[in-house]
Amino acid sequence: MKESPATDEAPLRADAARNRERILAAAEEVFLERGADASLDDVAKRAKVGDRDALSPLPDARGPACRTER
Questions:
Q1: pTM score, two decimals?
Q2: End-to-end Cα, the chain, rounded Å
Q3: I want to staple 57 with a disulfide (CB 3.0 to 4.6 A). Which of 20, 46, 50, 53 is the partner?
Q4: Where would I find the H helices in the chain?
């Protein structure tokens, strides 16, 4: 039996998927408005989630900033 690579992610629950989309949209808005002065707390408040929830969909601390760099 072949093992899945470490990069495979388990599917998100419906509520977690909705929160993830809200968090990423909020992160983009906040970082575009405030740039490097944006904080995780700003993103969490904008997405209406807790700080821990705001961290959960991110692969690392640069996640929100990298997401808006297009």
A1: 0.64
A2: 39
A3: 20
A4: 14-34, 40-47, 51-55, 63-68
What tens digit of pLDDT does each residue of 12-60 get? 789 888 988 999 999 999 999 999 999 989 999 999 998 877 776 566 5
* CATH classification number, 14-68, choose in 1.20.1070, 1.10.10, 1.10.1660, 2.60.120: 1.10.10
Q: Which residue has the tokens 């990069």?
A: 7
Exposure string over 14-38, b if 16+ CB within 10 A, otherwise e:
eeeeebbebbbebbbbbbeeeeeeb
Distance CA 29, CA 52 (A): 19
